[in-house]
Amino acid sequence: MKKYTMGVVAASMLFASGCASILSDSSYPVTINSTPTGANFTITDEAGLDVHSGVTPDTITLSASDGFFSSATYTIRYQMAGYNEQSFQLKAGMDGWYIGNILFGGLIGMLIVDPATGAMWKLPESAHVTLNPAAASASSAPMGGLTIASIDQVPEEVKSQMIRVK
Which residues does UniProt assign to the signal peptide (predicted)? Predict the structure, then answer.
């Protein structure tokens, strides 16, 4: 009788769990990097709340889920003196082990366990951007200094004072 009860308990635990919950995680390490390195970054969630900030390169752990049946999406904002600010969107995708519920976890794993634990989602391993140098502006040049800019960056009132050089 005890062997029968233990077998039922073991089978119940197996079928009450989700495949991704057993073989995967709901939080993942993500490497935040930039070229050049040393950029400040801030990570915000979909609600606009700051989740983490630091300096590249850095590795942090983020949740792949944003609630029941909802994947997480983060915005990473990179800033560095002399470079244009850039943003990167980090979005969780479906974990391949979640499909294993069709064979092993059954409907309970597919519809309840993995969505509730967040294990049905997986984040990319890294987020990397190449920062573009910022164009020089007239206010950043020293008095009487030389400023190089494209014609599109020159205000209209200054264009009339320009002298064409051949």
Answer: 1-20
129 pLDDT higher than 80 = yes
Give the Cα separation of 155 and 55 in Å (integer). 35
d(CA 24, CA 140): 51
Q: Please provide the CATH number assigned to the domain covering 2-134.
A: 2.60.40
The pTM of the full predicted model, rounded to 2 decimals, is 0.61
Q: How does pLDDT run across 75-93, given as a tens digit for each residue? A: 999 999 999 999 999 988 7
pLDDT exceeds 50 at position 13: no
What values do phi and psi take at 7, rounded to 5?
-65, -40
Beta bridge partners of 54: 41
Q: Tens of pLDDT along 16-33?
A: 444 344 445 567 799 999
The C-alpha atoms of residue 160 and residue 154 are separated, in whole angstroms, by 10
Domain definitions of the chain by residue range: 2-134
Contact 23/98 with Cβ under 8 angstroms? no
d(CA 10, CA 132) in angstroms, rounded, equals: 57
Strand 27-35 and strand 126-130: pairing?
parallel
Work out whether the CA dihedral 65, 66, 71, 75 comes out positive or negative: negative
